[in-house]
Amino acid sequence: MKKRIAIPMILSVLLILLPVIANAHPGRTDSNGGHYCRTNCAKWGLENGEYHYHNGGGSNLTPAATAKPTAKPKPAAKPNTTPAPAIALPKKQNVGTLQVYFFDVGQGDSTLIRTPKDQYILIDGGNNDQGKNVVKYLNALGVKTLDAMVATHPDADHIGGLDDVLKALDVKSVYAPKVSHTTETYKDFLTAVKNEGRTIKSVTKGVAIPLTGVDAKFLAPINSYGDDLNDWSAVLKVTYKNKSFLFTGDAEKASENDMLADGLNLKADVLKVGHHGSSSSTSKAFLDAVKPKYAVISVGKNNYGHPDSGILARLKNANVSVLRTDQKGTITAICDGNNITFTTTKGASK
């Protein structure tokens, strides 16, 4: 019976003394490396209950500061927009041939002509968001100076990128039809021309671009077309020896009919199809007069139904080989004066 009573008593005493033992000098330390003095404090120069920690065998009365965890650097914020995919650049051809680069600028137009004497003419510059791409194309082809820039008409998908080109390259002369527009895009174009110290040469039928060994003459606009900007389009025919190219901008049937009525020589081996293959252009009568062997359609993803299935059928029925920038990328025509070959940046070469 006495043994049963003694054991609980011993356990009770140990429980009472355990905190004292644990906190007694030099007992266990807390997370800061120190503790409070409970017994024999005077021996250590301390008062009962005074906090201290050990430092190389001595004591310090100041509690150790809790070290703050080093903050992890925040990950860099991801950009909100996905970088635009790299564009496929055309290969520069050897000098001595007429080269025509129909740039892939999506739903828009932009074409570079390089003459055998290394003169350069740029027709249109795509939309606003394509200006930098047009400059990349020109840089890849080693173009530093444009002998002529042609703005076919004020629509944004034709002149939007021309201000970027004017800022990046030396442009000797600028051609455009005498029609204006109120859009900011058109104002940006006019401002860029002014800032480069240039004036716009007005385009009408019969105006020629002075080139060496190559004939470049405007066939339209012939008349005034009011607010119909497409029919104001500058239409340029370029001839090198026995081969020729016809660049029609967005000219529609009214302009086509005027060119037909004027009795102009519209025959061309390569036709840049009007208005991205819209049904409003490339009438049967006009196509019969041009009689092209090849047709290039500059087009991208759009909600307009370009190119129109009826126009594609008309070209097929006329035995015209069609090349499209949305399928082939940038299309390059190489002409030695008697033959024309093509290369493309995607898809099979023609």
Task: Describe what you observe in this structure.
There is one protein chain. The chain has helices spanning 2-23, 131-140, 156-159, 162-168, 184-195, 253-261, 284-290, 309-317, 325-328; strands at 34-36, 51-55, 58-60, 98-102, 111-114, 120-123, 145-146, 148-150, 170-171, 174-177, 200-203, 215-220, 235-240, 243-247, 270-272, 294-297, 321-324, 331-335, 340-344. Strand 16 (294-297), helix 8 and strand 17 form a beta-alpha-beta unit. 24% of the residues lie in helices and 22% in strands. The protein is of the alpha/beta class. Strands 11-10-8-6-5-4-18-19 form an 8-stranded mixed sheet, with no helix packed on it. Strands 12-13-14-15-16-17 form a 6-stranded mixed sheet. The chain has a 3-stranded antiparallel sheet with strand order 1-2-3, with no helix packed on it. Helix 2 (131-140) packs across helix 4 and helix 4 runs parallel beside helix 5 (184-195). 39% of the residues are buried.
